[in-house]
Design goal:
This protein is mainly beta. It contains 1 helix and 6 strands; from the N terminus they run βββββαβ. It is about 10% helix and about 45% strand. The radius of gyration is 14 Å and the shape is elongated.
Amino acid sequence: MSKVDIGIDLGTANTIIYQKSKGVILDEPSVVAVNAEGKVISVGKGAKEMLGRTPSGVKAINPIR
């Protein structure tokens, strides 16, 4: 089993994941879109594009404040 060092920054604007050997491996907006039942529809860039433009029954939110 190999060891992998990572760092996770759960920021209010972006979530960033850094891997020591590779650098930044994920940099996505901290946004999630959910439907009325709470099911996740989209996360990151896709959800950010939905902010202010969601269909009825879907909410795009920033879960980290």
